[in-house]
């Protein structure tokens, strides 16, 4: 079995390399405008996991790094993440910032917490706060009842961030108050889009039964951040997988984004899980090689 797996991996690598070479010879690889970064989640959620994530992501030549708001906060008493980022020549681009959007009684405190994270993002040169909706019990969830609270919270939070020069991008997420296609469309068609932008996770869209290409196309003018993730429904990585190995039409998604006005960096992402079959460094390398085959360049 191990020999079969090795042969399959070897064959995949050879085919990928031949495809890249042929594309270059025939001039088929279109020029790519956008830069690709990687989130730190694959290495873990703990603040201490950031050190290895930054080192690995930097070593692979990715153009940027995304962490969590609470990780930035946790590193401040130790002098901040700046030193680690500088050592790996890796800029901070964004941070994932989960806040409660459904409870109006918590709105003021949540906006203040988000604003504190936004100031840390800006301190280390980042530009995007990825807004993570709060978890809900989906079986008993009444979206229509809380929709006005979600919209008002997003508007308040995004305006506060805009005032300090940080973009707020709503990230739909499985198990949260903004998960389904209908919820995404309802919210994004209701918020103040001068300040609230969209930051889709294409793998989670696929997992939730939506067509990522359709969603990206419909909201292309509002997208300012993307989690580029693939989904194969397998037993590892919460059903996700390295890019190019799943069901998401990554080339079509990227072709759309290349034609858009998106200014932010695209972030490769792969959720961690127990018994991961690949080390985070190797998983990130596979995604990098796949993106290189589509014409994307990485730092040497």
Q: What would the principal axes of the Cα set say about the shape?
A: globular
Q: Which bin fits the share of residues in helices?
A: 40-55%
Biggest sheet strand line-up: 6-5-4-3-2-1-10-7
Radius of gyration: 19 Å
Descriptive account of the structure:
There is one protein chain. With 300 residues, the protein is of the alpha/beta class. The chain folds into two domains: 1-30; 33-293, Divalent-metal-dependent TIM barrel enzymes (TIM Barrel), CATH 3.20.20.150. Helix content is 43%, strand content 12%. The chain contains eleven helices and ten strands. The protein has helices spanning 2-26, 49-59, 69-75, 82-87, 107-123, 143-162, 181-188, 202-207, 212-218, 250-258, 280-293, and strands at 36-39, 65-68, 92-98, 128-132, 167-170, 196-198, 226-228, 230-231, 240-241, 266-268. The strands form two sheets. An eight-stranded parallel sheet has the order 6-5-4-3-2-1-10-7. It has a two-stranded antiparallel ribbon with strand order 8-9. Strand 3, helix 5 and strand 4 form a beta-alpha-beta unit. Helix 3 (69-75) packs across helix 5 (107-123) and helix 9 packs parallel to helix 10. The protein is globular, with a radius of gyration of 19 Å.
């Amino acid at each position: 079995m191990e020999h079969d797996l090795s042969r399959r991996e070897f064959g995949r690598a050879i085919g990928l390399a031949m495809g890249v070479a042929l594309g270059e010879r025939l001039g088929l690889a279109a020029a790519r405008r956008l830069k690709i970064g990687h989130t730190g989640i694959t290495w873990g959620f703990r603040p201490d996991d950031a050190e290895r994530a930054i080192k690995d992501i930097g070593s692979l030549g990715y153009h940027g790094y995304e962490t969590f708001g609470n990780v930035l906060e946790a590193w401040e008493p130790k002098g901040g993440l700046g030193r680690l980022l500088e050592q790996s020549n890796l800029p901070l681009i964004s941070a994932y910032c989960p806040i409660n959007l459904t409870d109006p009684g918590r709105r003021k405190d949540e906006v203040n917490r988000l604003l504190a994270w936004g100031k840390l993002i800006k301190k280390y040169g980042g530009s995007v706060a990825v807004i993570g909706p709060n978890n809900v019990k989906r079986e008993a969830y009444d979206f229509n009842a809380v929709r006005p609270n979600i919209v008002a919270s997003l508007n308040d939070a995004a305006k506060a961030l805009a005032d300090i020069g940080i973009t707020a991008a709503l990230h739909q997420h499985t198990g949260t108050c903004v998960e389904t296609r209908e919820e995404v469309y309802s919210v994004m068609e209701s918020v103040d889009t001068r300040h609230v932008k969209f930051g889709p996770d294409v793998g989670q869209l696929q997992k939730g039964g939506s067509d990522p290409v359709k969603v990206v196309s419909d909201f292309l003018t509002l997208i300012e951040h993307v989690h580029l993730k693939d989904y194969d429904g397998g037993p590892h990585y919460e059903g996700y997988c390295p890019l190019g190995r799943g069901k998401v039409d990554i080339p079509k998604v990227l072709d759309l984004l290349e034609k858009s006005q998106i200014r932010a960096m695209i972030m490769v992402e792969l959720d961690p899980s127990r018994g991961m079959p690949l080390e985070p460094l190797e998983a990130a390398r596979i995604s990098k090689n796949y993106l290189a085959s589509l014409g994307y360049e990485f730092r040497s």
